[in-house]
Amino acid sequence: MSGCANLNLNKPVPKSNPNLPTVKNFKAYPDRNAMALYWNTVPTMKGYYIQRYNPKNKKWKEIATIKDPYTSIYVDTNLKPGHIYQYKIATFDKSGIPSLSKEVIQSTMPKLSPVIILEAKPIVKGKIKIIFRPAQNERVNEYIIKRFDNENAKWKTIATLSPRLDVEYIDSGLKDGTIYKYQVIAKSFDGIKSFPSKTVVVSTFKRPPVITQINATNNLAKKIKLTFSPVKGAVAYKIYISSYPNGPFKFYKKINSTNFTDYINKDGFIRYYKVTALSAHKTQSLLSDTPVTMGQTLSKPAKPIVSTNITGNQIELIFTSPDNRATKYLIIRKEKLSLFKSIQKKFIASSNRFTDIINPKKSYEYYVYEIDKYGLLSKAPAVIKVNN
Asked: Which of 8, 9, 132, 358 is the 20 to 30 A CA-CA neighbour of 379?
């Protein structure tokens, strides 16, 4: 309490009268941000002047005029923890003349003890967990969590925790494979802060290495097979696909092995791939640094080359496969019966020759397709016309 004190006096204290009674037993009892001044009352006087020394300008300043002589306590507030303060007290008479003063020197209590961090470690991708010991001082009601901002080279408050026993913090949204620094500061109900804790340095989990060797097939029917080397520490892999070599790439499949068969019900279909590795901590190799691999399903066989040998009522078709993929040939014969009518018949030739009986007086058209070992037909047939 301030005991009827005028706290805004700036006038100088009058010259002292050495004959006036003085204060006895002037003492100071410190808190962290306040100082309680105690003395024995002097009822025969009208009150007390209290001054505090300013070490910056080396002058005394009146901080209170107490006009009740029975008051024996004054509390000076808004002080700094761990600082030395020097006070004077003097009585004054009915004319405001002070007695000789009494002095006392005392230091405010130091800041709160620093918080002790017990554990700081990465827990999953982009997260760091910090656990610290609860402050023993029961006046603590809050903790300030600070992280060093490397870009601006300063400490930044990222969270506050309350009450005193809430001593766990999880920092999230962090970059993979990056070092972070933390401090914890305790704060009391009356705004007193502790010294910062020791700085802890923690790294988030690293990304797995980029997969640089990825192979994709181009000779399989209606499918593309991917193979790549295993990455140490990887527990799974993510496949991304695009229709263009420069992307954009979208997530396609998550697999647990180093090979993958992409079943595509199209011939000659082109697809671009990227593959990333995943760690047990869910970190992922950098997609932007991963090379692009092109895969393609097997295209349709080439149109066969056909030569003919006609003798009388017999025709021989001789086939040549430009891409050497033919295992047999499909022959579709159309026999013209009239201007708008024809009859069609199919044949399979297992060799590169086919013989057919024809009527020299009729017209025929032969459509020849190459068939490969996967059963794929050439995109276009070779067309042979006879007697047209």
From this structure: 358
